[in-house]
Amino acid sequence: MKKLSVLAVLAASVLLFVSCGLFVAPVAYTRFDSQTSQYVYYSSDVYGITEGQIEVYKDAEEFNAQFGIPDLEFHFGKCMGADDVDGTRYILVSLRRGFESDFTVYVLNEVYSSGKHFYLNGTALVPDRIDPYDTITAYTFSKVPFKRTNPDGMLHTDIVNVLEYK
Description:
mainly beta, six-stranded mixed beta sheet
């Protein structure tokens, strides 16, 4: 009988911890705020190996072209998929290492402008590295302070992250 009681207490404790969000993966719902006719594609690629987790194209025609090239391509350390909230598409950036995440953006050189910067929730981001290549420039951002969308284990659709390039 004692073993059964210990098991019941253990099971209740696990349920309590899970319901309080202690074992819930911390995520930041993140989207890109597009300009004009840009087409934004949100991938479910966990590590962004085969494609960017967020890809921004000139327009839908460029996205649908056989060899369409994105103007901006965001690669995050790890994403937990894509989701729609109130009709808006997001990716779920993993915040496993706290409330920060690293990411890299590849910008097509013909889209690049020295007067433009990357923003997260209205705050300008300063890249840790800028690597220019022949056709693209890579911007690497470290320890970016994303807002966690599920701070108590429950999804809060009013806590989201918006990236911009303006």
